[in-house]
Design a protein that fits this description.
mainly alpha, 87 residues, 3 helices, 2 domains, 49% helix
Amino acid sequence: MTTRRTTILADADLLERLDRFARRTHTTKTAVVAAALEAWLEAHVETTELPFLAVGRSPNGRLSLDGRSIVRREAGRRPPESRPKGR
């Protein structure tokens, strides 16, 4: 991971609390701020959903199979071995 330097403006009391916390936990202010930013972004950034995909069967047959294959792919699973169909 590449790091970059930036400047932030914060209330003096908040910066003093940051200093005390970093000293007390034997860590750097950079590590505390990075962890706080990660936690805040995780809590506030929406995850992408698949709005076009619903669970169930499609009256059009093939659509539900396509949906299941998309879900398997997104979940990192491989589809089961395909077997020849008898006619």
